[in-house]
Amino acid sequence: MANYPCAQCGAMVDTSGDGVCKKCKSKKPFKCSKCGKAVGLESVFKPHKLTHSGKPLYCDDCGSDNEQLPCTRCGKTLIRSTGVEVPVNGELKVYHKECLDQQRQVYRKIMPVCVAIGACIVGYAAYMFVSNLGVVLLFAVIGGLLGKLTADKYLGLH
């Protein structure tokens, strides 16, 4: 299970334990990622789904399966239990299944284009300044990696 910082003292608290902070003995050491309320393990929404630290931790009120949220792609309302939760850039995003499939298709089509454009631009710039083919290829690879990072950041899925 995961460790999260205590809402009271900041010490790490294990979600697989008794849910009490070992340092300050707080019985409500967890902080809801949405509303900020301090809660005990018994009030954490689906603690069995927390497999590693850094994943958002919700209280039962904010993480309810019946909670209505906007789809990250289309913006239309969906019920959390019918959506698909995906970690994107360290944040949990919720999609309709169809919207997630569409977003993944867009990523698979555009990401290679971003890589190619990055490689061409940076490689050409290197070619303009240096006539060494090895250096030009190195910069083209760096440009391709920058293109991939750009696609990951703005398209969000891989």
Strand order of the largest sheet: 1-2
Strand content: 15-25%
Average the pLDDT over all residues and give the rounded result: 87
User: What is the share of helical residues?
Assistant: 25-40%
H/E element sequence: EEEEEEEEHH
The biggest beta sheet is recorded as: 2 strands, antiparallel
- Dominant shape: elongated
Low-confidence stretches: none
Compute the number of helices: 2
What structural class do you assign from the helix and strand content?
alpha+beta
> How many structural units, i.e. domains?
2
Distance between the termini: 25 Å
Strand count: 8
The radius of gyration computed from the alpha-carbon positions, rounded to a whole number of angstroms, is 22 Å
List keywords for this structure.
2 domains, alpha+beta, 8 strands, two-stranded antiparallel ribbon, 2 helices, elongated, single chain, 158 residues
What does this structure look like?
With 158 residues, the chain is α+β, with helices and mostly antiparallel strands. It has two domains: 63 residues, no CATH class; 52 residues, no CATH class. It is 35% helix and 16% strand. It is built from two helices and eight strands. It has a two-stranded antiparallel sheet. A two-stranded antiparallel sheet has the order 3-4. Strands 5-6 form a two-stranded antiparallel ribbon. β3 and β4 form a beta hairpin. The longest helix is centred in the last third of the chain and has 33 residues. The chain starts with a strand and ends with a helix.
